[in-house]
User: What shape does this take?
Amino acid sequence: MARTGGAIRGWARGGEAGLVILSAGLAGCSAQSPAILAPVSPKGRAEAELFWFILAITAFVFVVVEALLLYAVIRFRARDPQAIPPQIHGNRALEVSWTTVTALGLAVIFAMTWRTMAATSTPPAEAIPVKVIGHQWWWEFQYPTLGITTADELVIPVGRPIRLTVTAADVIHSFWVPQLGGKMDAIPGRENLLWLQADVEGTYYGQCAELCGASHANMRLRVRVVSDSEFQRWVEAQRAPAAQPVEPLAQKGYQVFMSKACVGCHTIDGTPARGKVGPNLTHVGSRTTIAAGLLENTPENLARWLDNPPAVKPGSLMPRLGLTPEEIQALVAYLSSLK
Ligand code: CUA
Assistant: This one.
């Protein structure tokens, strides 16, 4: 009796643990998580349609096979353990027919996959070119025809195709924005082609999809899809050199930036800072996040990041610089002013 009670309690605990895992999994499917089956791009839709088509075929096969299996298990179960079942040797008609039907099913899936790949692999000629460079652990975006370099937030106009040339600076990464369709490996020394287009304005979340070191999971990105006119305004603002610091605190921050290690790794157009190791900070104040999408771009978070980067992003190549609280406040004022 006690044993039964223990077993029930064990089951209950197992069930509780299962519920916790299930709800954690579902929480992962919140608005911020990738949603492959909620596409907002022509390419993403084509991929989702193909997925549902293949799922329908395979689900049909699964149901038929499991039904036949259950039927055979129940209908032909051994009623008399001593009895010997009829001994047969193969059935050519059956074997030929199930091989043929399976081959036909696979041929249909192959043809549909081929068709979708052919229809989605080539970007339209008018696509805006963007070079995507994966770094440990952030994303660099260069717009060669617009003369813009930015990081972690890809800003694109709604309804316009974007031609991405994907590569990496150090190790292999993978560029992936599920709702816009497609995923592309970013490989050092190689340029892979991917294109995307978003039909609805908004912010879409992406994530590095190739294990690339300690902060792989923290290598996020956002695609901000804006109207044509807003995109033009953004382009003009980004092409301008960095704003001159006006407030005394921001001016002090400028001095700190140019006299500390910051200047060696980052570029701020229109200043002596020409470093290429870290993200271009010319308009860092206009971005909605910092640290590869890990933190909202607020003064508090900027201060937290500047104080101890590896505590925010483990393995961060930006080390703890030992800045004083006063220097951090000045840097925050300066960087926030770089709209
Ligand atoms: Cu970059 Cu994972």
